[in-house]
Amino acid sequence: MATKTSGGDDFTSNLGRIYGIYTGGFVAFVLFIALLEKLGVPNNILGYLFVFFTIAVYAFIGIISRTMQVSEYYVAGRKVPALYNGMATGADWMSGASFVGMAGSLFLLGYDGLAFVLGWTGGYVLVAVLVAPFLRKFGAYTVPDFLSARYGGNLARFIGVIVLLCCSFTYVVAQIYATGIIASRFLGMSFELAVFVGLAGILVCSMLGGMRAVTWTQVAQYIVLIIAYLVPVVLLSAKKYGLPIPQLTYGQALQEIAALEQGFIKNGLAPATMKLHAAPFTSYTTGNYFALILCLMVGTASLPHVLMRYFTTPSVREARVSVAWSLLFIFLLYFTAPAYAAFSKLEVYSTLIGKNIGDLPAWVYSWGKINLVTICGKAAASADAVKAACGAVSGHAGILRWQDFGINTDVVVLSTPEIAGLPYVIAGLVAAGGLAAALSTADGLLLAIANALSHDIYYKMIDRHAPTARRLIVSRVLLVVVAILAAWTASTKPADILSMVSWAFSLAAAGLFPALVLGVWSKRVNATGAIAGMIAGFSVCIVYLVVTRYFPGFGVKTLGMTSLTNAAGAPLIPDMAKALAAPGAMDGWVLASHPLASKVGWMNMNNISSAIFGLPVGFIVTYVVSLMTPAPSVEMQRFLDEVRKPRGQTLMEEKTA
Q: Is 599 in a helix, a strand, or coil?
């Protein structure tokens, strides 16, 4: 019988009331901040209140959810209701890439940016149909646990851990990077210091309570992030069109954007080859567009920190229902992202392009000081810096042109309230939402890494007799070590958020998806085939990614896009400062450090879609090698028959002590 602890039956039976009170309290806090703004409290103080109050709440939940029970730490006792698991999964999923980077990518890419929306949302169909319910019925703690049980022995487990570490570490670096951007802007500290401040918030949410603490923290974080994401664009929709439903009004915004673009071209404020927002396949080729959708879909169904969430439900049926709730909660944000991008671009077009460079709004300099907004190829740190930059451009008339302006995709969402002239409380709310998104995903990723190292490596492969207390201590120590290493990596600014996240999806798809899917749906696939397929698929993917990213001299060229070229027809380079060295010659609006500027190689494919090569290799090698070697045992084949039955209990009950 379960004990009635702070995370036990008393808590789970009152979830509606508890989170209802929490939501009301958060709304009251936002109104209180709005009142302080009216009373003249400085914006930097308001920013500190927003950031530290929300982190304090998450930390409180993490502390009261501490546990020393293995099943609670790894899978939240398998008693998270489907609705709340769906909400926690939504928060786990709504990473810095989704909250901070998605609308920014749509801002730049327009129609082509929908590849991210389609890929990430469609991936949950694969999760529901092919993977999640069956892994839940299997009864594993981690994804490598499933690989070991299905394929026998620790070699498959070890390879699974390697893939998990690569994709999850890449992903968590992106989340810590996002916390650094938010904290550096709203707390007024250096990016490098802000990264470690964000790290502290991540650790207090997950270190003591494991999956139990992360689950209940993520539910709270989802409430914050979805409110924060919807409020600005709802206000803009109501302000511009009198209807507070941006999903219905952003078509009108697109029409206005199209009219403004034609006006810019006609009046000489943009080149005739300007990239139009609604034009398809102007940034990605058709092949790259659909390859990206495929890689993101398959990667979604392979990411260990996502699949781990479905290990926490009470039953297989609840796991299926939980996927449906997850999709709904994710849909709320993704259905809004295109509208967010359209309203933000409309504000920039309406209030910035065509204006005198001496009359730029204050938000340009606020973000320019941290090198995230550029004018005429230089950071817009001050009015004097802008004048000097544009004065160095031959023939510049002192009027801001479309090609003069650059903004980092990772700050479009964060800056939109300021761009639109909304009260600072809205900007602070968005920052709190972005922080919640990054923290929630980072929590899940760090837990996936620490659990794999402590459970799959230490307990299963090194010390099978380790007591519970030692196992949990090892997990917590490893979590801290990995978190510090990820924060240090993020402080070096290795790439933009969306690029790093996209790489993680490709690595997971190529390394894990064939073994997971064929492990459930093919009784003929054996350990030799699965191990060979994982190694082959993952190796092809990571070699392509590394070579195209860091060794472009090996027959790889920069950019495979159709529109981002200079006047001479040469492709632009990814670095904003260099690319805009001669802005008068630009042929496209470049946003700093975007995956659009990724390297390409074989068949002109971007490296953010590198699984397009590794995935088929993984499937082919797995199946062919399995056919060439002995079939799995009769017992395993019967076991798989039971796994695929939609009803029944968990097949591998674990000890809970």
A: strand
CB 233 within 8 A of CB 246: yes
Kindly compute the dihedral angle of the four CA atoms of residues 124, 127, 129, 133, in this order, to the nearest 10 degrees.
Answer: -130
Where does the pLDDT of residue 456 fall: very low under 50, low under 70, confident under 90, or very high at 90 and above? confident
User: Predicted confidence band at 597 (pLDDT cuts at 50, 70, 90)?
Assistant: very low
Residue given tokens 């009359």 in the structure block: 359
Instruction: List the domain range (segments joined by +) for residue 273.
Output: 11-350+412-643
Residue 594 lies in a domain: yes
Q: Rounded CA gap, 147 and 208, in Å?
A: 27
CA distances from 194 to 191, 199, 417 (A): 5, 9, 22
Q: What is the pLDDT of residues 368-406, one digit of tens each?
A: 887 888 999 888 989 899 999 898 888 888 899 998 998
Helix pair 154-186, 43-64: axis angle to 10 deg: 150
459 in a domain, yes or no? yes
In a domain, 270, yes or no: yes
- Strand (E) or helix (H) holding 641: helix 634-643
Paired residues of 39 in beta bridges: none
CATH number for the domain that contains residue 563: 1.20.1730.10
Cβ atoms of 51 and 196 within 8 Å: the answer is: no
Task: Note whether residue 655 is domain-resident.
Answer: no
